[in-house]
Amino acid sequence: MMIDRLEGNSELKTSVRLMLGGRRMTHSVLLVGEEGLGTGFAVRCVAADYLYPNGGAPAEALLRGECCRAVAKAGKRDSGQIETGIVREAISVTGMGSGGRYLVGQVTAMRSEIFNTSLSAEGRAVLLYHVERMNEESANALLKVMEEPPEGVLFLLTADSLAGVLPTIRSRCISFAVAPVSPADCARYCTAQGVDSKDAALYSELFDGHIGTVLDAARDEARRAQVDKALALAKAAAAQDSYAAAVLLSAYEKDKVGAAALLADFRAVAAAGLRGSPRAPVQGDAARKALAAADAAIQRLGAQVNPKITLSVLAMKFRTF
Question: What is the pTM of this model?
Answer without folding.
Answer: 0.81
